[in-house]
């Protein structure tokens, strides 16, 4: 039944409770418009709940509906404003769950607001009783909507120009231990790591302004370290100063101070929320600063296939919201990261037009309408012995970040940084010479380590360290045939 039938039926607006599919939220013949937002959810209905009714309910509750018929619908262009579930496919290998496609008219969303988009799409529906679980797998964001966002303030191309570094991944390190260092000792770590060969160091997600180190101490000692390392090496260096704080006023104060003492980059955590992220993005754009986003907290809702929001959706939202860097996984390191799924995240950050790639979890063609590109960051339990795999997986436009894998080096932080820089340059050279770095990687590293003691020591300590566990979030292929309504 389509929306027109609904309007014509006298019983459509009789008071009482009616199935969502009968209220017009299931329209199997609906052809999404180019300007529609489309979401694909993985729905796991409660036992006995029809998947089509469940899909219609998600469409209803994420757009205009409530649990009972309301006559005030008739005061609106309700056919237009109702989200339309239009396709439901079984999830292969998972008999209890279904992929439901839902189209939303663009007029349902305020331009340029992730807060508004998410208040609809992930607002009420995740707690809906007829569903055991619900996951937002992917979204098609129409060009007309993408164009209402500013996107990354700096982007990959301009970041490289400011750094004057091209043709290789950038190298970074998260300062460790995460908590407890004084400002002066913290600055020492930054200096050693940058002097030894890294491009960036960074604050960890939970370093803000604690009793052991107030933020101004950290910023001042870090910038002294950056300036000294730049002078010593003749290269541009940076350190991501985490401005995450309790209020926007505090974050602006910290960001202004970072800029005033010469930092090129500031950092925020995902936990500050979408509106705060967009505000900091506007600030970074006005102030010619690179904005680094640490995705702290994301695994609470991205990691399980059956419930939550895929990180590929968060990555799309963050490119629109406008961050220059985003943590996107390592595949080989200590944290969750299926190779195919992770490739999808990297493509979202770096492509201007991303075609549907079901094997990478990408359900839709997606144009980014010339928004600048976000630099993905590979971080979490990586070391020099994996350099061939990292370069093969991620290519050049990535920051490879070795925290423990720099600071834990047996001969010290500078040696750890040198090991990573030499391993990277040896691998880039081998790749550029046309060698098969994946197959020959260990030999290439071993050869480079003959002339670089720090690299030899790094390989001796870490070369056998791997994190081989089953991924919790791999793509499920989607059949082309849909279930008839
Ligand atoms: O502190 C680290 C890594 O330190 P180390 O290099 O010592 O393991 C970061 O918080 C993680 O990368 C976050 O994870 P993700 O990057 O997946 O968001
Ligand atoms: Mg961390």
TrEMBL record:
Instruction: Quote additional remarks.
Output: The basic functional RuBisCO is composed of a large chain homodimer in a 'head-to-tail' conformation. In form I RuBisCO this homodimer is arranged in a barrel-like tetramer with the small subunits forming a tetrameric 'cap' on each end of the 'barrel'.
Which gene name does the record give?
A: cbbL
Query: What name has this protein been given in UniProt?
Result: Ribulose bisphosphate carboxylase large chain
Q: How does it assemble?
A: Heterohexadecamer of 8 large chains and 8 small chains.
Q: Name one GO molecular function term.
A: magnesium ion binding
Xref: InterPro entries: RuBisCO (IPR033966), RuBisCo_large_chain_AS (IPR020878), RuBisCO_lsu_C (IPR000685), RuBisCO_lsu_C_sf (IPR036376), RuBisCO_lsu_fd_N (IPR017443), RuBisCO_lsu_N_sf (IPR036422), RuBisCO_lsuI (IPR020888)
Q: Which residues carry this modification: N6-carboxylysine?
A: 202
User: Which family is it part of?
Assistant: Belongs to the RuBisCO large chain family. Type I subfamily.
This protein's species is: Nitrospirillum amazonense
Q: How is the cofactor bound?
A: Binds 1 Mg(2+) ion per subunit.
Reported cofactor(s):
Mg(2+)
Keyword entries, A-Z: Calvin cycle, Carbon dioxide fixation, Lyase, Magnesium, Metal-binding, Monooxygenase, Oxidoreductase
């Amino acid at each position: 039944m389509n929306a027109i039938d609904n309007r014509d039926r006298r019983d459509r607006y009789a008071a009482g409770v009616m199935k969502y599919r009968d209220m017009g939220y299931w329209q199997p013949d609906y052809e999404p418009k180019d300007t529609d937002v489309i979401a694909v959810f993985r729905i796991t209905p409660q036992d006995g709940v029809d998947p089509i009714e469940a899909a219609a309910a998600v469409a209803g509750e994420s757009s205009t509906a409530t649990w009972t018929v309301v006559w005030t619908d008739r005061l609106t262009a309700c056919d237009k404003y109702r989200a339309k579930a239009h396709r439901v496919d079984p999830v292969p290998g998972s008999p209890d769950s279904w992929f439901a496609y839902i189209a939303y008219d663009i007029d349902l969303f305020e331009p340029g607001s992730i807060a508004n988009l998410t208040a609809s799409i992930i607002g009420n529906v995740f707690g809906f009783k007829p569903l055991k679980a619900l996951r937002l797998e992917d979204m098609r964001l129409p060009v007309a909507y993408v164009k209402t966002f500013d996107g990354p303030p700096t982007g990959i191309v301009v970041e490289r120009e400011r750094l004057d570094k091209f043709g290789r991944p950038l190298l970074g390190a998260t300062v460790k231990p995460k908590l407890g260092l004084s400002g002066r000792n913290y600055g020492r770590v930054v200096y050693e790591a940058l002097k030894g060969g890294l491009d960036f160091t960074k604050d960890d997600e939970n370093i803000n302004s604690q009793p052991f180190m107030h933020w101004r101490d950290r910023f001042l000692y870090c910038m002294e370290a950056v300036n000294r390392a730049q002078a010593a090496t003749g290269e541009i260096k940076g350190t991501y100063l985490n401005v995450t704080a309790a209020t926007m006023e505090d974050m602006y104060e910290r960001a202004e101070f970072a800029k005033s003492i010469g930092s090129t980059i500031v950092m925020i955590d995902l936990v500050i929320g979408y509106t705060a992220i967009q505000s900091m993005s506007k600030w970074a754009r006005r102030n010619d600063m690179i904005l680094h986003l640490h995705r702290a907290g994301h695994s609470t809702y991205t990691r399980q296939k059956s419930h939550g929001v895929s990180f590929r959706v968060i990555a799309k939202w963050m490119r629109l919201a406008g961050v220059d860097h985003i943590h996107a996984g390592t595949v080989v390191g200590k944290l969750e990261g299926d190779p195919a799924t992770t490739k999808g995240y990297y493509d979202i950050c770096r492509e201007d037009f991303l075609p549907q790639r079901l094997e990478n979890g990408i359900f839709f063609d997606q144009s980014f309408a010339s928004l600048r590109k976000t630099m993905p960051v590979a971080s979490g339990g990586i070391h020099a012995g994996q350099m061939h795999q990292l370069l093969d997986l991620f290519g050049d436009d990535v920051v490879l970040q070795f925290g423990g894998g720099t600071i834990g080096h047996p001969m010290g932080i500078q040696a750890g940084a040198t090991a990573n820089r030499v391993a990277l340059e040896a691998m880039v050279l081998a790749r550029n010479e046309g060698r098969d770095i994946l197959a020959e990687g260990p030999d290439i590293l071993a050869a480079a380590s003959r002339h670089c003691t720090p690299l030899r020591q790094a390989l001796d300590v870490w070369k056998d360290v791997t994190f081989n566990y089953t991924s919790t979030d791999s793509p499920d292929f989607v059949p082309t045939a849909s279930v008839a309504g």
